[in-house]
Amino acid sequence: MPSIAVERTIGETKKAVLGGLSGYNDQKMGKQKYKRLAVSLRDGDKIVGGIVGEFWTTVLYIQYFWMEQRLRGKDYGTKLITAIEDEARRLGATRSYLDTMSFQAPGFYRACGYEEFGSIEGYPGGVTRHWFTKPL
After folding, report:
1. pLDDT tens digits, residue range 102-126?
2. How far is CA 116 from CA 35, 76, 111, 134, in A?
3. In which order are the strands placed within the sheet that holds 127-135?
4. How far apart are CA 86 and CA 111, in angstroms?
5. Gyration radius (Cα) of the chain, Å
6. Which residues contact 111 (CB under 8 A, 6 or more apart)?
7. Residue 96 and residue 63 in contact, taking contact as beta carbons nearer than 8 Å
8. What is the structure's pLDDT at 10?
9. What is the pTM assigned to this prediction?
10. 3-class DSSP state of 1
């Protein structure tokens, strides 16, 4: 009989879960494109900002976006978003989505054409997590 185990390391379980989920998704949707993407902002050899995401089926998911504080508000963020969206379009993306916290950049994403489609309140300090999407 199967048993449940709570684990502190996730490697083996994550590999099994992703393998099972990918197999199931392939059965239902056919084999789909999957690519990881990264766009960096560099000052010489140093990365001072960037976006990391993934493209799956026809959707770009922006996972991480960071930039040094001194560079914010100078249009670099918009250029980074444009660069990753353009690359995703080249791969066949028709939509993008992301999440951000209320103290991070919801206003920035709205200015870039993203629309909020959900949120969760209840994070420490009165913080809300927001989800945004945009057609590409």
Report:
1. 999 999 999 999 999 999 999 999 9
2. 25, 22, 12, 9
3. 34-43, 46-56, 59-67, 95-101, 127-135, 115-123
4. 17
5. 18
6. 78
7. no
8. 85
9. 0.87
10. coil
Give the tokens for residue 42.
Answer: 């560099």
Residue 121 CA: distances (Å) to CA of 70, 97, 115, 125: 29, 19, 18, 10
Give CA 2 to chain center in angstroms: 34
Contacts from 67-76 at CB under 8 Å and sequence distance 24+? 67/41, 71/41, 76/41, 76/49
Structure tokens at 90: 């080249």
Burial of 44 (0-12, 13-18, 19+ CB in 10 A): exposed
Average predicted confidence (pLDDT) for the chain: 95
CA distance 3 to 119: 35
Amino acid at 61: Y
**pLDDT at residue 28, as a whole number:** 94
Q: Is 20 left (phi over 0), alpha (psi -120 to 50) or beta?
A: alpha
